[in-house]
Specification:
heterodimer, A: 219 residues, mainly alpha, 63% helix, disordered N terminus, B: 345 residues, alpha/beta, 16 helices, 12% strand, disordered C terminus
């Protein structure tokens, strides 16, 4: 997932911010800066300070990524309280990694969303052993229009369950793209993949999900 | 899903991301609309799955995160203590020396013997001195001194009949099944003595053992390989002509056997009485002019090392001693130095 060399990542960030020179966006300017406005260089600086357990850097990381990671997590879990707990857990794991010197070396965002994916998976594994919400099988029957299913609040749980049946990579891409609301370029940067590869992954994930939700409507 | 449809779906998803409606997009793909519709509608519905965080939850998470970070900051230095002693050892040793010097304990520890309360300090100070000696030459000279100290300590313990754990290094001067003589010290060997290397006269042996009223009993002896002692072999070869003048076998076997019986070094009479024949032999050997010169140079070394009676003392073996002892000092003390470092660390 993070196999992309640093140089390619740097060029990916240049695509995202073609008109900005490095260092022009100091993350110290405002707390409302969103994660996507951070260049690779800024992120490396931030990460270096985080490794020193710098208070300001850590606060900045939490402020920048909390909303995006909450959305990512909530995309795959059924209730607000669980999403809150799991999002908080992602940040706790960052601290644990910093303590154990396992912290990400150069891609904080890729690392954070990777941890978010694992935290949600762990949650579902536990939930699978002790299911708390009954799955309404009728709602994912073939007779329903997928759009109707998604639109109705009640059916969201079913869609989330269907997402759990996708591959780990497909889940991750959909969560980043539609959960965290990242544009394709951001997803590509987070995953260390090309935009083309991400678009293809996304298309196949959408198709696989639609097939699970309404097998007769799709092929 | 075939490749053609996949490409169209990718285009459709791009358009969806640009904010176009599903109906408008599908209008561009009339032939594939039926297949694309459920896919696009699924994609269009996905953003509704996500939730927005409450400000309260965000603040709570931030508070918890910062508190954990704070705790981590305070506990991390303690955790990192693990690597500190490694580079601080030298500093601590220097501090020990400084404190010890100021209290005069070092002076007191100078005469400490193994088993004495101050003996540990004595060795620590020696190590510190070795570690902080400026040049290699200075270090070697110090190491020589300390190696000599080890041998002196053994002799002092033996003459007092005191128990103590000792280690010293010196050349093997004689070997019998029950005892060896290493650097003038009778070392008792038994079945429990662990011997590493090939024992051979004149080779350096590092002896570890226990002293007591009955003498020094070796627990382990490790013998240095021959390559370490290249130069020492030659003096022995020079010395050989001398025994040839007298019955050589008597020197190596008979005297040593009687040596074994003497528990400590003090009963020198037995030694001298047996070795005397060898001394009387050396005058007989004097006629040989070439060999004599060599002997004399060796003998001078002995005199300077051991004092006047040393020539009488061991005769041949002391000649060996003269050549070997220098080597033993070098090798032995270095060994001692490194061992000490290990044990201290």
């Amino acid at each position: 997932m993070d196999s992309m060399p640093a140089t390619e990542r740097a060029s990916a960030s240049d695509i995202i911010h073609p008109n900005r020179s490095r260092g022009a966006i100091g993350y110290g300017r405002g707390t409302s800066l969103r994660a996507r406005t951070l260049t690779v260089q800024d992120e490396l600086t931030l990460l270096a300070r985080a490794r020193q357990l710098d208070q300001e850097a850590l606060a900045r990381i939490h402020d920048m990524y909390y909303t995006s990671i909450f959305r990512y997590v909530s995309f795959r879990v059924s209730d607000h309280a669980t999403a809150e707990d799991l999002t908080s857990e992602v940040f706790t794991r960052l601290l644990t990694a910093l303590r154990d010197k396992n912290a990400p070396q150069n891609t904080l965002r890729g690392w954070l969303y990777g941890v978010a994916a694992r935290v949600v998976s762990d949650h579902h594994r536990k939930a699978y052993r002790a299911p708390q919400v009954e799955l309404d099988e009728s709602l994912i029957s073939a007779d329903h229009d997928p759009a109707d299913i998604v639109d109705r609040k009640l059916t969201q749980e079913s869609v989330k369950r269907a997402i759990q049946d996708l591959s780990e990579e497909q889940r991750h891409v959909l969560s980043l793209r539609f959960g965290s609301d990242m544009p394709i370029q951001e997803v590509a940067r987070t995953l260390g993949k090309s935009e083309g590869a991400v678009k293809q992954l996304q298309a196949r994930a959408v198709a696989a999900l639609a097939r699970k939700l309404a097998p007769k409507a799709v092929d | 899903m075939d490749a053609q449809l996949e490409i169209k779906l990718i285009e459709c998803l791009d358009a969806l991301a640009q904010g176009e409606s599903v109906e408008r997009i599908l209008a561009r793909y009339p032939q594939d609309a039926a297949q694309l519709r459920p896919l696009l509608e699924t994609a269009a519905g996905l953003p509704t799955l996500r939730m927005e965080p409450s400000e309260a939850a965000r603040m709570q998470s931030r508070q918890k995160f910062m508190a954990q970070a704070d705790l981590l900051r305070r506990t991390t230095p303690r955790k990192s203590m693990g690597f500190l002693p490694r580079f601080a050892t030298g500093f601590i040793a220097a501090a020990v020396v400084a404190v010890a010097l100021s209290t005069g304990a070092v002076a007191a520890s100078g005469s400490a013997l193994p088993g004495d309360p101050l003996y540990g300090l004595k060795r620590t100070v020696e190590n510190a001195q070795l570690n902080f000696s400026g040049s290699t030459a200075a270090r070697e000279s110090l190491a020589d001194q300390f190696a000599q100290r080890r041998r002196d300590e053994v002799n002092q313990l033996l003459s007092a009949g005191r128990p103590g754990e000792v280690e010293f290094t010196g050349p093997i001067e004689a070997m019998q099944p029950a005892a060896w003589i290493v650097s003038n010290v009778v070392v008792q060997i038994d079945a429990n003595t662990q011997i590493d290397g090939t024992p051979q006269i004149n080779r350096l042996a590092e002896v570890r053992g226990v002293t007591g009223p009955g003498g020094l009993r070796a627990t382990s002896i490790s013998i240095e390989s021959a390559s370490d002692l290249g130069p020492t072999v030659t003096p022995e070869a020079v010395a050989t002509p001398r025994p040839s003048a007298t019955p050589a076998p008597t020197r190596t076997l008979t005297p040593a056997a009687s040596v074994t019986l003497t528990p400590t070094l003090t009963p020198t009479p037995t030694l001298t009485s047996i070795i005397r024949p060898t001394i009387s032999a050396s005058p007989t050997a004097t006629p040989a002019p070439g060999g004599n010169d060599n002997q004399n140079t060796n003998g001078d070394d002995d005199n300077s090392n051991d004092g006047g009676n040393s020539n009488d003392d061991n005769g041949n073996s002391n000649d060996d001693n003269g050549g070997g002892e220098d080597n033993s000092n070098d090798g032995g003390s270095n060994d001692n130095g490194s061992d000490d470092n290990n044990s201290d660390n």
